[in-house]
Amino acid sequence: MGVMDWYPPIEPYDSGMLGVGDGNELYWETCGNPAGRPALFLHGGPGGGLLPDSRRFFDPAAYRIVLFDQRNCGRSRPYAGDPEVSLEHNTTPRLVADIERLREHLGIERWLVFGGSWGTTLGLAYAQAHPDRVTELVLRGVWLVRPSDVAWAFTPAGAAHLFPAEWAAFLAPIPAGERDDLVAAYGRRINDPDPAVHVPAARAWMGWELSANTLLPVPLPDLDDAMLVAFARITHHYIANGAFLSEQGLLGGIDRIRHIPAVIVNGRYDVKTPPSQAWDLHQAWPEAELHIVEDAGHGGSEPGTRRLLIEATDRFRRSR
Question: Is pLDDT of 220 > 80?
């Protein structure tokens, strides 16, 4: 296998639903070698759910690969595509607790944690809460969810300068008098019980969220209304609440994980999570290895980014 190639597609050898309290059940699956080194993949979004290619960052002969759909998305239940499903119990501390419950359920003592975009946020939060359970971290497209990071994405002074047409489409559903706080304006619409209101709002919100994910444009995924509503509701829920992080944020807990081997990868032209966030993380955590990919945006599947991520998991498969 060339270093820039995916590992071949694989199917789970085991899967199930895990009750985690608050009326929630999580879909989980395991792939690869049942006797291999445990590795946990954390999907992005939040609310994005699993994709089959997420299994392919790991050597299936070497790793026991664990993946799951986070609360209220993918195959986990109840599903946030139903606007009556409450997100009250969908918070970062509860997702961290879900990961621990899954680890215990699968009988795993320690594992490598791999996350992209929102997965970096959750991976850092989990590692800081349970540093003795993490062998290594592989992080792609760092999202720290500070007020400045949210402002970059949702005010005219940020990414809007680079994608004016997409920003104009994002603004279009919101009257001029409500544009001083677009996150709040969209929240009122995404959470409106009327499908004639929340479906178009979710479609516009996700149009902006999913635009500009890669350096070179790719078609937007074809998501049905329920998937759009679930994705938009969960993503908005976390953005509107500062990802439920403590006041000191993720950089305040670096001393708890400083000893964990880590690789950080970020595209130079990542408009969603600009490399300044990865840089700030590296400044707080110089022991972590930082790679800026000169010909990549935000997507984990872009060749230069994918190569570095697979090189990291290949290197760590030999660790003890």
Answer: no
